Amino acid sequence: MTVRQLTLPELVGVCGQLDVGLVGLWREPVQEYGVEATAKLVRDAGLTVTTLCRGGFLTATDPAERARALADNRRAVDEAATLGTDVLVLVSGGLPAGSKDLHGARERIADALAELGPYAERHGVKLAIEPLHPMYAADRCVVSTLTQALDLAERFPAHQVGVTVDTYHIWWDDRAPEQIARAGAQGRIHTFQLADWTTPLPEGVLNGRGQIGDGSIDMRAWQSCVEAAGYTGPIEVELFNDGLWARDGREVLAETAERFVRHTL
Amino acid sequence: MTVRQLTLPELVGVCGQLDVGLVGLWREPVQEYGVEATAKLVRDAGLTVTTLCRGGFLTATDPAERARALADNRRAVDEAATLGTDVLVLVSGGLPAGSKDLHGARERIADALAELGPYAERHGVKLAIEPLHPMYAADRCVVSTLTQALDLAERFPAHQVGVTVDTYHIWWDDRAPEQIARAGAQGRIHTFQLADWTTPLPEGVLNGRGQIGDGSIDMRAWQSCVEAAGYTGPIEVELFNDGLWARDGREVLAETAERFVRHTL
């Protein structure tokens, strides 16, 4: 998504030129290109898919909507397995229209995970609950902290349900380091993502994830914390940013790779 | 600030018409009208000033900037005392330019409170640290949760330093109810403010505080929580909202009073 202006074949080509060997994919472009075709494309290029984003949106109260969400998440698991990644990132969903019940919404996520966890396990996929910044609590994700994400994940085996650690969402939280340790001790850090915090936030606050190094987040400190917790997996850079999307995708990917090297250990 | 389109004399007049007997004031319009003149205006009208907003911005590292901030906060204490309110709300300040050190910034607030707390006490004023929503952590307030605010406040006597509980900033936080109980047990809830959470957030996320009842926050639940913690003080409605500011101020105040009655206990 950092370079969504590139088609999948372009992305794969640029990754090859820049010596980037791992890539996180989003469902929409994969579905558009075809899941099997994407799997072949990345496999032929020797690229490894780190994660698939995203399943989730599990907070509906309406039974039909809920059934559709569960079916869609099972499809997302299938897609992840086809792409050869063992991690499906989950964005849990916001409050249903008119609801003010955050606790109830969080419990419905747990109910859904009880159904999806075993299904994912059978397909060799782990679910990674991503706590989103509290500014998304109403309309996108009622799971706002690593503490909440782990409280949910701990009801299930770690090889079924873990968490996504994303600097953009947790950097303000002085409790996050101890929660990263908690997640690591349980083997529940299923992926680690970077984005920087830049202000002012744009309207709707969706596409303001800053390029690494442009903002307020100490990337090395968070990387140290995650690695001290035992995480040895890939580190993803995930930027939604209208400014970056308006530029040449190859240039943005090169810049991102350079920033990654400069601001990580 | 909810009706900043009104001059202070207009505000006082409309409060009288609507039978509103308490009002929270902001420093800028008070300074413009004159502190003594404002004190006389509200006193003559029989209005009680609940709080003065706001001091704070105590995170600077530059010594001269820091000295200016402390002097300004002493002035804010003086203004509060002159207006006859015993509560000065503090917005702590964001990260200095280029800094990524949230912990250091929070410690500088503690250092400043050690100087300001005794000064405020001598003037009969209590400081109320306001945790702001984590979306303001970089540019406005490094104190993002009630837990953090109380961790700071507890270093000082409760009659010097307490907290502001504002629904807009804490509604997403499942740890907030226990922290309200903690604050109440210590006599540190120095004011309680309402605003609703509406989306999409506007650019810059400053002026999106929703009218009571328009958003995702269960006002009665938070009011119950604060009152169960022993709080018996006034409840303020503080809305920064471009839409409300564009309307007739008297109409907005009447609407706000009606919403308050409808959505509180």
UniProtKB/TrEMBL annotation, chains A, B:
<dbReference type="InterPro" id="IPR050312">
    <property type="entry name" value="IolE/XylAMocC-like"/>
</dbReference>
<dbReference type="InterPro" id="IPR036237">
    <property type="entry name" value="Xyl_isomerase-like_sf"/>
</dbReference>
<keyword id="KW-0413">Isomerase</keyword>
<feature type="domain" description="Xylose isomerase-like TIM barrel">
    <location>
        <begin position="27"/>
        <end position="255"/>
    </location>
</feature>
<protein>
    <submittedName>
        <fullName>Sugar phosphate isomerase</fullName>
    </submittedName>
</protein>
<dbReference type="GO" id="GO:0016853">
    <property type="term" value="F:isomerase activity"/>
</dbReference>
<dbReference type="InterPro" id="IPR013022">
    <property type="entry name" value="Xyl_isomerase-like_TIM-brl"/>
</dbReference>
<dbReference type="Pfam" id="PF01261">
    <property type="entry name" value="AP_endonuc_2"/>
</dbReference>
